[in-house]
Design goal:
Blueprint (H helix, E strand, L loop, with lengths): L2 H8 L25 H4 L8 H26 L8 H32 L3 H18 L2 H23 L10 H16 L3 H8 L4 H29 L6 H12 L9 H6 L13 H14 L2
Helix pairs in contact: 3-4, 3-5, 3-6, 3-9, 4-8, 5-9, 6-7, 6-9, 7-12
Bound molecules: fe (ii) ion (2 copies).
GO molecular function: hydrolase activity
Protein name: Metal-dependent hydrolase
Pfam families: Metal_hydrol (PF10118)
């Protein structure tokens, strides 16, 4: 037996319950976004590279979010805490709406720009189907916990006042920030379920190492496909300026490295980084837009 699995089973009795702060609601918002016109062009800072990076991310979401829902839902009957049960419902509802909106996003994008959606997402869909068939439920939940941490870190970057998303087409900014806010609201749900059913630190961190590799692989693959189709794969100027805009000193993703690394510390918890102020700021802006 995989030592990670036996380790997980051995501590199954150390259950822990819901830990989302009481001031944070996990509320599915059934939104639709008018993004067809924006998707025809370079919607992020009029930059082909940055636009391709975020479009590539969107491509991975529908398959990923179905996997997250399945892996959390698998354990729903084992959760006795009614609050965590309610959070699971909120989590599945939010991811369900994200999945629907990003499926529409991806189909519209591919139709507008001549990308083959099956080619773009097929490998990831098959990889996740393989995981569901061949890995244990606790391993699949650990994958979800790992990727949920990625999305929580990304959400923090996208909701911050100096976010790269402030340079986006307004409709795209609205969609990405809606998704980011809901990711932040539910950032500890899969984690809480993982602990409640006996998931261990060892499994959590070892899966994160592998998940990091595969996330990097999938996003790079999507980026290369998109840039090739756009005829910009060998435009080294956009690679240089794009990578600097993401990972340079003031890069859009640079601030994510430290929170990413915190996942590997003993006793890590998603809410040890208290990001409620970002949700409050987003909610007040959102209330004006949807008044
Ligand atoms: Fe999501
Ligand atoms: Fe999520």
């Amino acid at each position: 037996m995989d030592p990670c699995i036996s380790d997980a089973v051995s501590v199954a009795s150390t259950a822990r319950q819901a830990s989302t702060p009481s001031g944070v609601g996990i509320k599915p918002r059934n939104r639709s976004h008018d993004i067809a016109a924006a998707l025809q062009g370079e919607w992020l800072n009029d930059d082909a590279f940055l636009t391709a990076v975020f479009n590539g991310m969107s491509i991975t979401f529908p398959a990923g979010e179905k996997f997250f829902i399945d892996s959390v839902r698998h354990y729903r009957q084992d959760i006795t805490d009614p609050v965590l049960q309610e959070h699971i419902r909120g989590f599945c509802g939010q991811e369900g709406f994200h999945r629907r909106e990003h499926q529409m996003y991806n189909e519209t994008l591919c139709a507008a720009r001549g990308y083959d959606l099956e080619k773009l997402e097929g490998k990831l869909t098959r990889r996740l189907a393989w995981a569901q068939k061949n890995l244990s439920p606790i391993q699949n939940l650990a994958i979800t916990v790992a990727i949920e941490h990625f999305t929580a870190v990304l959400s923090e970057l996208l909701l911050s006042s100096d976010s790269v998303m402030n340079k986006a087409h307004p409709s795209m900014r609205e969609l990405w920030r809606w998704h980011a806010a809901e990711e932040m609201e539910h950032k500890s749900v899969a984690f809480d379920v993982f602990l409640a059913v006996g998931g261990t630190e060892k499994l959590r961190t070892s899966v994160m190492r592998r998940a990091t590799f595969f996330i990097g692989l999938e996003l790079t693959r999507a980026l290369i496909y998109i840039l090739r189709k756009d005829g910009k794969l060998f435009d080294f100027k956009i690679w240089r300026t794009g990578l600097a805009a993401l990972f340079g000193e003031q890069g859009a993703f640079s601030g994510g490295l430290e929170p990413y690394k915190e996942f590997y510390t003993e006793g890590f918890h998603p809410w040890q980084q208290d990001t409620q102020h970002l949700l409050t700021e987003w909610a007040s802006e959102d209330a004006i837009e949807f008044a």
